[in-house]
Amino acid sequence: MTKISAIIPTLNEEIHIEAAIKSVEFADEIIVIDSFSTDKTVELAEKHNVKIIKRKFDDFSSQKNFAISKAKHSWIYVLDADERVTPEVQNEILDAVQNPKNNVGFYVRRSFYFAGKKIKYSGWQRDKVVRLFLKEHCTYQGIVHETIRTNGELGFFKNKIDHFGYKNYNHFISKIHQYGELKAKELHSKGKKVSAYHILIKPTYRLFSHFILKKGFLDGYTGLVLSITQAYAVLTRYIKLWLLNRGVK
Fold it and tell me: Phi, psi at residue 185, to the nearest 5°?
């Protein structure tokens, strides 16, 4: 039987970690790569049959690639701590590794939940990520919203995993600032400048895009909150870049 290594990156995920681990217990190896959590994440993970690696966080791709390099098996399943593999997707994973049909990896779609509500629109209706792949053919690249670089074909699973994106609104905002800072540093390293377009037009368009073009209005008040927050994320990114360009860290 072909074996699977599941990898779960963590930082202060005590409310998610045990459920995340349980959802990938079908894997032959589970690695929790922790960025020195200050809550009970590691303590709770240690209750389960997992390998724990502690590594200082630099960026998302480097963190995941490091964990992959420590995995025993060729097939890798990467699970964010706020995701859950459903029984239907588990069956697809187990079938795929036995009969990949020339695919070196597989996309899985996600059902996104926010404030206890399943979000059907607002930009998440087509949300998909590569989660299962052969480590010899795939590697992560990108600092913030990392993507898989592959030298082969990618397949699709029919069913969806569950994505409980944010513990609460404070967690949502903290993630926005984390991603914004990383993205600003990336843009700063490329010599990007900030204009009124980035501060005024881009956030406004992001709000319009999520609420109108991506039908966030169909998610009601929650869709409006998410759309405004997405606009704020863009604004935060360019304010942080503007400060970096002025030598303010």
Answer: -65, -40
Residue whose C-alpha is closest to residue 216's, from 129, 120, 107, 116: 120
Q: Which domains does the chain have, with CATH numbers?
A: 4-163 (3.90.550.10), 169-245 (no CATH)
The answer to whether the beta carbons of residues 44 and 18 sit under 8 Å apart is: yes
* Confidence category of residue 145, pLDDT binned at 50, 70, 90: confident
35-82 pLDDT, tens per residue? 999 999 999 999 999 999 999 999 999 999 999 999 999 999 999 999
Q: Whats the size of the chain, residue-wise?
A: 249
What DSSP string runs through 72-95?
Answer: SSSEEEE--TTEE--HHHHHHHHH
Separation between Cα atoms, residue 75 and residue 59, nearest integer Å: 23
Q: Spell out the residues 6+ positions from residue 4 whose beta carbon is closer than 8 angstroms to its own.
A: 26, 27, 28, 29, 73, 75, 76, 77, 93, 97, 132
Cα–Cα distance measured from residue 186 to residue 15, given in angstroms and rounded to the nearest whole number: 31
Q: What Cα–Cα distance (Å) separates residue 20 from each residue in 132, 197, 221?
A: 16, 41, 29
Q: Identify residue 125 by its one-letter amino acid code.
A: Q
Percent of the chain past pLDDT 90, that is, above it, reads: 86
pTM summary value: 0.88
Cβ 134 vs Cβ 104: under 8 Å? yes
CA distance 1 to 78: 20
